[in-house]
UniProtKB/TrEMBL annotation:
One biological process term in Gene Ontology: isoleucine biosynthetic process
All copies of domain Thiamine pyrophosphate enzyme N-terminal TPP-binding, residue ranges: 1-113
GO molecular function, one term: flavin adenine dinucleotide binding
Cofactor: thiamine diphosphate
Protein name: Thiamine pyrophosphate-binding protein
Keyword set includes ATP-binding: no
Keywords of this entry: Thiamine pyrophosphate
UniProt-listed InterPro entries: DHS-like_NAD/FAD-binding_dom, THDP-binding, Thiamin_PyroP_enz_cen_dom, Thiamin_PyroP_enz_TPP-bd_dom, TPP-bd_CS, TPP_enz, TPP_enzyme_TPP-bd
Sequence ranges assigned to domain Thiamine pyrophosphate enzyme central in this UniProt record: 197-329
Keyword Flavoprotein appears in the UniProt entry: no
CC per GO annotation: acetolactate synthase complex
Length: 554
């Protein structure tokens, strides 16, 4: 057995289903070993796509997404995808080949300081320096990717080391038999004193509010949160990364707060006299640049990573614990306490959120062009109830973010890193991770153009994703800024596009174009009902924008 075989055997025993990447000379020895394993190597057309596919897979499964790419530029092309995974705490194990270890440091072909470049956007980096160390390094990376606050790790594999003799013991295999590599890897319980502290603060509060963040999603705390709020009557708002942890149509959900949140939810966060932040980092996006909650508001913060506690706000009761473990512990002891807001106050906020949502998607039924409100309202009405909708950055995201989330994985996007081009590869990875769910990518024409070469990947592997291109022939977010902040002095924001439906057809995929509002619903229905990957190029009215108030939010 050589080191390459030990690596593949480790991934196989760890339950890794897919490794996403591109072939290259320095990793060909590893790729060859997949023939004898249960792991499928999914070859993409660009390393950024491979990384974001791994990210989409990881977000819907909670298991590590694994990539394998070539040396030098191959590893460099992963930077954007790893940055998004790092900011959104998504577990990825990124393995990149390298030139021979004995020649590194002599300014050889392909050489660059990859570990130091990737260090700020990964939880851990390691290099396999001996063949016998290969299985240990892979195991370390897998565990670190899912432990505490999850995130990406990077493993550097020199070509000559991949061919060195290696061993793979029964003890190494047994580790994977007894340890499930998924998020959360462990569930630290809260200290009893922290639960007591929280209960005392809740007893004194008159307007308590739960702020549920991404940590709730990663801990799988949906049922525990639902039980807690039903028992106590405390309403819930979520961060963008916490969306869907409580069904946003639930009577206790006030929706999303922050820069892309609703006015009603934001006002509730500002009015609360106690905020119970569970798995929430109180980031600038969530708190509208730290304007809500008020710095004088009493805060409880629960996070699995103690380094996050009180890093943004002073916190009365910092709690290091898994979100679900905390909710289950406090629910057992809070059942007899009347913690609810006055019902009419809750109803007012809830009604405001629903009224805002309805107004946001309202459109003129006799319009001669397809406005974004009509497009997203139609998607909402036509998609499956449990569909996963993915998106990249762009003006379309301002509309997509207003669709109610029914579960924690109903909407996937690069929340904290932002940027364009994520929606399509997220959808590809999510479909592989959740093959029984409908997966719809809604991507702007600018972002889709960055990654559309991987339509071929969708066809080659028959990944049944549905792609809706929001096509306004511009970099819409920036054009909107030029319209409202720079007196309509446009430069660099208008583009020309090919027929995206024609491009899809050239790759062997069903594609259609629609510009007539009366044809939108049947055209979308055909794409959603098509057996296999399909694309709808929607020519959206480029003059219709989000409201003026949204300019600071996009």
């Amino acid at each position: 057995m050589d080191a390459a075989e030990a690596i593949v055997q480790s991934l196989d025993d760890a339950g890794i289903e897919y490794v996403f990447g591109l072939p290259g000379s320095v990793i060909m020895n590893v790729i060859d070993k997949f023939h004898e394993s249960n792991v499928e190597f999914v070859s993409t057309r660009h390393e950024q796509v491979a990384t974001s596919m791994a990210d989409g897979y990881a977000r819907v499964t909670g298991r590590p997404g694994v990539t394998l790419v070539h040396v030098g530029p191959g590893a460099a092309n992963q930077v954007v995808g790893l940055g998004a995974a790092y900011r959104d705490a998504s577990p990825i194990v990124a393995i990149a080949g390298n030139e021979d270890l004995e020649r590194l440091g002599r300014d050889i072909w392909h050489e660059w300081d990859v570990e130091n470049v990737l260090d700020p956007i990964t939880k851990w980096t390691g290099q396999v320096r001996r063949g016998d160390d290969a299985a240990r390094i892979v195991r370390t990376g897998l565990v670190k990717s899912v432990s505490e606050t999850p995130g990406p790790v990077f493993i550097d594999l020199p070509k000559d080391v991949s061919r060195e003799k290696s061993t793979y013991s029964d003890a190494q295999r047994s580790f994977y038999d007894h340890n499930e590599l998924s998020v959360p890897f462990s569930r630290p319980e809260p200290h009893s004193a922290d639960v007591e502290c929280t209960l005392h603060l809740l007893e004194d509060a008159t307007k308590p509010l739960v702020l549920a963040g991404g940590g709730c999603v990663r801990s799988g705390s949906g049922d525990a949160l639902k039980t807690f709020v039903e028992n106590t009557g405390i309403p819930v708002v979520t961060s963008n990364s916490g969306r869907g942890i409580l069904d946003e149509t639930s009577s206790w959900s006030l929706g999303v707060v922050g820069r892309r949140g609703s006015d009603g939810a934001n006002e509730a966060l500002g009015q609360a006299d106690l905020v119970l932040g569970i798995g929430a980092r109180f980031s600038g996006l969530t708190t509208s640049n730290w304007t809500r909650p008020d710095p004088e508001t009493t805060l409880v913060q629960v996070d699995i990573d103690s380094a996050e506690l009180a890093s943004q706000y002073p916190v009365e009761c910092p709690v290091t614990a898994d979100a679900r473990a905390f909710l289950e512990s406090i629910t057992d002891r809070a059942g007899n306490i009347d913690l609810s807001w006055e019902e009419e106050v809750i109803s007012e906020y809830r009604d405001r959120v629903r009224t805002e949502r309805a107004a946001f998607f309202a459109y003129e039924t006799d319009a001669e062009s397809i406005g974004p409100q009509r497009l997203f309202a139609t998607i909402l009405e036509e998609k499956d109830d449990d569909a996963i909708v993915t998106q990249g950055g762009g003006v379309h995201a301002s509309f997509n973010a207003r669709q109610p989330a029914a579960d924690p994985h109903s909407h996937l996007h690069a929340i904290s890193f932002g940027g364009m081009g994520y929606g399509f590869p997220f959808a590809l990875g999510a479909k592989l991770g959740a093959p029984d769910r409908q997966v719809i990518c809604v991507e702007g024409d600018g972002g889709f153009s960055m990654v559309m070469q991987d339509l071929e990947t969708a066809v080659r592997y028959d990944i049944d994703v549905k792609i809706v291109v929001y096509n306004n022939f511009s970099h819409g977010t920036q054009k909107l800024r030029q319209a409202r902040l720079f007196d309509e002095r446009y430069l660099g924001t208008d583009v020309e596009n090919p027929s995206f439906a024609g491009v899809a057809d050239q790759f062997g995929m069903y594609g259609a174009t629609v510009s007539d509002p009366s044809e939108l619903r049947p055209a979308l229905g055909e794409v959603l009902d098509h057996d296999g990957p399909a694309l709808l190029d929607v020519l959206v009215d480029p003059t219709v924008w989000p409201s003026t108030d949204d300019i600071a939010q996009i």
